[in-house]
Design brief:
By secondary structure, the chain is an alpha/beta fold. Helices cover about 50% and strands about 5% of the residues. The protein contains 17 helices and six strands. Strands 2-3-4-5 form a four-stranded mixed beta sheet. A two-stranded antiparallel sheet has the order 1-6. A hairpin with a 4-residue loop joins strand 2 and strand 3. The N and C termini lie far apart (about 85 Å). About 20% of the residues have low confidence.
Length: about 375
């Protein structure tokens, strides 16, 4: 009898140990999976959570802010409006950023009115156009993310705000990355939320897409796309050439300028993917000035006490500028002219000067635009 009891006890101990080990392994796997994200070394943006702060009572277009944000916060936000607190009470800096914001929006509205076809297209009727747009109900804002313009980093922002969000918001929307296209209150949010989009110099975005998705890619989907490019643009391509799937930057541009510009969202013109002219965006940010733009934007939204872009760098000068020199120096001017025609709407709507020669292309002020 004693032997049976001892045997059962030993089996019970082993079973409990097994369950404990499984629990530890599962926890570690879950944590690693949750923390993993598809970041890219070209955009080394590091997000930090800070203690929440109480913002000033400066309202922004009377947009109301939910104040019952609780998780991981030491105190509730006491403001009832989306607010703005200048960095170090630097009103001059805030005024400067507000002027830049208004200038960009004015440029977009002016060009859109001139190009009526951008106002008449049917993009707005297709919810699928917002499969990369995300919203936050606590702070009543949405961001239209664009591939090759920090899209994965914006997902981090929404995840952090969701994890620290109100109980009501997290119950209503368990998934922090639920796209706008799948939301029942899609039209209401599109009409009433603070709307944001970040853009980038079209050629700099094109180079980034080539480096990430075309040049030396190991992803079979893009290797097959490369083979499709080679069949179309490389004269006398052998079976071995096509199988190798190595596409030069010039061949990539040839592909883009002969209809390939809509073949992938990583290099598709922004205005052909998103109904930019049909949406009254409240803020247009630029990757070239992302440090100032995100600091200003987060203060407007009242989230600068929860999340920030620390370690972000503006993509000009030794960043995008040098890459453009590296990749475009040997591209014929006739091909550059064709490329500007493909991305003409993006150049115009977002205030980037269209390059007429190499010096224009490599000019840092032209890279930044408005």
């Amino acid at each position: 009898m004693a032997y049976r009891v001892l045997t059962l006890a030993k089996k019970g101990f082993l079973f409990c140990s097994f369950l404990m080990i499984c629990g530890i392994v599962f926890y570690q796997w879950k944590t690693a999976f949750k923390d993993s994200d598809n970041t890219h070394p070209e955009d080394p943006i590091i997000l930090h959570i800070r203690a929440p702060i109480v913002n000033a009572d400066t309202s922004l277009q009377n947009r109301q802010l939910s104040t019952n944000v609780t998780s991981l916060q030491q105190s509730q936000l006491s403001t009832s409006t989306i607010a703005s607190t200048p960095i170090g009470n630097n009103k001059t800096w805030m005024d400067k950023m507000e002027a830049i914001r208004n200038e960009r929006l004015k440029c977009k509205d002016t060009v859109c009115k001139e190009r009526s076809r951008l106002m008449r297209n049917s993009l707005l009727s297709s919810r699928g156009r917002f499969d990369l747009a995300y919203s936050n109900d606590d702070y009543k804002f949405l961001v239209t993310t664009v591939w090759k313009i920090g899209a994965s980093h914006w997902k981090k922002v929404f995840r952090i705000l969701h994890d620290n969000g109100s109980v009501e918001f997290r119950k209503r929307q368990p998934d922090p990355h639920k796209p706008m296209s799948k939301m029942q209150d899609f039209n209401e949010k599109l009409a009433n939320y603070f709307k944001v989009i970040f853009v980038r110099h079209p050629f700099a975005r094109l180079v980034s897409a080539y480096r990430d998705k075309v040049n030396g890619t190991k992803i079979e989907f893009y290797r097959n796309k490369n083979r499709e490019m080679l069949r179309k643009v490389r004269k006398g391509a052998t079976a071995a050439n096509i199988q190798a799937a190595n596409v030069t930057f010039l061949e990539f541009i040839m592909w883009v300028t002969t209809g390939g510009h809509t073949s992938d969202y990583h290099w598709r013109p922004i205005n052909s993917k998103y109904p930019v002219c049909q949406i009254q965006y409240d803020f247009i940010g630029k990757l070239e000035t992302i440090s100032d733009d995100t600091s200003y934007l987060f203060k407007l939204l009242g989230v600068d006490g929860l999340v920030s872009y620390r370690g972000a760098y503006n993509h000009t000068g030794s960043g995008d500028g040098d890459l453009l020199k590296q990749y475009f120096s040997n591209i014929p001017t006739t091909m550059i002219t064709k490329l500007t025609q493909v991305y003409n709407d993006d150049f115009r709507v977002f205030g980037y000067p269209i390059p007429k020669n190499y010096s224009d292309l490599f000019n840092e002020n032209n890279l930044q635009g408005l």
